[in-house]
Amino acid sequence: MLKRFKKIDKPLLIITIILIAIGLVMIFSASNVAAFRSSGDSYRYLKRQLMVLAVCAVATIVILKFKTSSYKALSWAAVIGIGLALAGLFVLGTVRNDTLGWYDLGPFLFQPSEFAKVILIVWMASYYDTKKKENLEQYMFVFFPVIVAVVFFFLIMFQPDLGTALIFSFIAMYMFFASPISKKIKKQIGMLLFFLVVMIILIGVTTKFSFLEEHQRERIFMSMSNPCSSENFYDQGNQLCNGYIAINNGGLFGLGLGNSIQKNLYLPEAYTDFIFCIIMEELGLVGAGVILLLYFLLIGRIVKIGKDSKTDRGAMLCYGIAVYFLIHIIVNLLGIFGWLPMTGIPLPFLSYGGSYTICTLSALAIVQRVNIENVNEREKEMKQNMKKTKKLAPNGK
Length: 397
What we know:
Elements: H1 2-7, H2 10-39, H3 44-65, H4 71-92, E1 94-96, E2 99-105, E3 108-110, H5 112-127, H6 139-157, H7 162-178, H8 183-207, H9 214-222, H10 230-233, H11 238-250, H12 275-308, H13 312-336, H14 354-392
Antiparallel strand pairs: 1-2, 2-3
Helix pairs in contact: 2-3, 2-12, 3-14, 4-5, 5-6, 5-7, 5-13, 5-14, 6-7, 7-13, 11-12, 12-13, 12-14, 13-14
């Protein structure tokens, strides 16, 4: 284990630890009032997040042990398992915020759709990393992951969880187009997807999105109107408007850590999807800018590790995980600013939550495993070069 630890990417590890530390501080700051009111324990959510991080530490140790070449068999089992878990929600699932997306496991809730995103990345990266390059020209081989992704998309969509379904579909599309398959097939699929997206938008506009649930339509229309108006503030616009107030309160340097006003039960669930509003209220634009810089460095480091990989599998894993983080950050921030409908998308490392935290840190463990293999490959090349040099040297000297 110590040898593997020496080979992990230290800058990525440091950035991760800093973001986790900031997340713990802000989760406590944003949740202590609500936690005390609901349970009498101000540390309730902080304690639970620490328990989740302990699970993440174990998961990281396990993930670092397995070579990415073993993912092909493991990911097939994971895809089948998560598919059954998504289907089982319609029988055994628990409803939260109008969505049938969780299994109630006593002290914790398990959300299969979050795991489905990371599992899809691992499976597609392993699936398209084939030694039989002729398979990449065959339609049936190429299309199979697309069919699986479409099935998963509808299982998530019918919960209904539009935001997660859209992010899942975006990740699936990226993994498909980033794969080493035929350019001809990519072009054909690209044209088909463009046509489908245009058709869905046209149907949605002409029918006023009548095919969506009422609360989903309200969120879409809220992003096009003023959430702070008298008719919206006490209804669908309440959370968004209180988020605006928190951002406005913060100014450049913030009110100070722990001094948020909006967390005092004005902003609903301030420690989850809207935690960035509390960060901006307490730490200001400066604090928010530091966090965005850390996100930029994190994603940049993941991309670099992907570029250094000698295999399509390693590169696709890293690029897919980079997109996974990027899309969550973009959608969450656009949501709290009212530029997109807010659909319950958490912010990496900062939002309170079990399933998503386990998924994000497991994804980073996979990136670190790719880096370990990159280091091993460089060491192997160095040894080979040294042997060649010795052979070429006079008298083997």
